Amino acid sequence: MRIINKAALLTALLSASMTLASTFDESRIAASFLKVGTGARASAMGEAFSAVADDSSALFWNPAGLACLRKTEFQVSHNQWLTDVKMDHFMLAIPAGGTWAVAWSTLDLGEFDEWTGPGSLTGRTFSVNDQILTFGYGNSFFTETLLMGASGKYIRENLGGGIGGQTYSMDFGATLNPWMVVPGTSFAVVVQNMGGELSGFQLPMAVRLSAAARKAGIFRQSSAPASDNYDGDSEKRIVYPWEASNNDGGDLLISSFEVLIPKTGRTELHWGVEYWLNFVALRAGYRYRFPRNDLGGMSGLTLGLGIRGRSLQFDYGFDYAYAPYGDLGDASRFSVLVAF
């Protein structure tokens, strides 16, 4: 009969989850992996993204942002996180009477040795992993002045040895775009991870409050036709330089600020900037946790870049993000997307 030493299993799980626990400083919640950011673009901007979200990754950050999509978009994101922890996300968003989206996310904590007793290995291993299936919808109202969205998640946790659990949660988001008053600004509020429990512990419920501003033509004016500089459905919404029909859309600066207020844990402040010059973007951000960042070094800093382009009827893009976590190591994220 196969027996997994419970003490060894607990030790393995604790060592695997120490990264999450020490990073987020929350030992009283379940499924801390729900707080790990999705997508390289948002991560490079210090995770100050709720008021910026306008691609398929909005399903995670603010489902209201799904309403910004004009084309079907498929995005794949890989997160090479700490201590060999890996996360992968597969996202699909389809505009149809609003925008519908679905995502499949996996967290791989690696493999661990199986024991039959103290100091006795079986030679076999077991894996620890989690899966999240997410469905969401976003739509716009009053000529895109108000965006609203919601998403539902099915969360399954596999701790190995037949130990695990499953639960459900929901996110709600709203974005206000006062284009007619202050063009280029947006304000967002998001409630994340409302719902069930895992192993008797609550999910990491949190509220995000965010603001963003956009300014085009700071260092380089667009030479594209005037009609290219605004979205056809909303004359006050500035579009990205890479969308210009003559490949010379000038530049665009986006700055954002976000406050994360968790139900359990410490309040966080997030800053982010994104600078577009034609089809290339440079990004930077910073995350600060009250009363201090505990990981030392340059933890809190984020950097990244992105590339966008068009070919025939397709839009495509690549994003990369880098984030140091002090003594725990560094994290890298890659995202690839295509829209049609």
Note down, in words, how this protein is organized.
- The chain has a single domain (6-339), classed as Porin (Beta Barrel), CATH 2.40.160.
- The protein contains three helices and 18 strands.
- The protein has helices at 6-24, 40-44, 58-61, and strands at 73-80, 86-95, 99-117, 120-141, 146-160, 163-176, 185-195, 197-198, 201-202, 206-216, 230-231, 234-238, 251-262, 268-277, 280-289, 301-311, 314-324, 330-339.
- It has a 14-stranded antiparallel β-barrel with strand order 1-2-3-4-5-6-7-10-13-14-15-16-17-18. Strands 8-9 form a two-stranded antiparallel sheet. It has a two-stranded antiparallel ribbon with strand order 11-12.
- β1 (73-80) and β2 (86-95) form a beta hairpin.
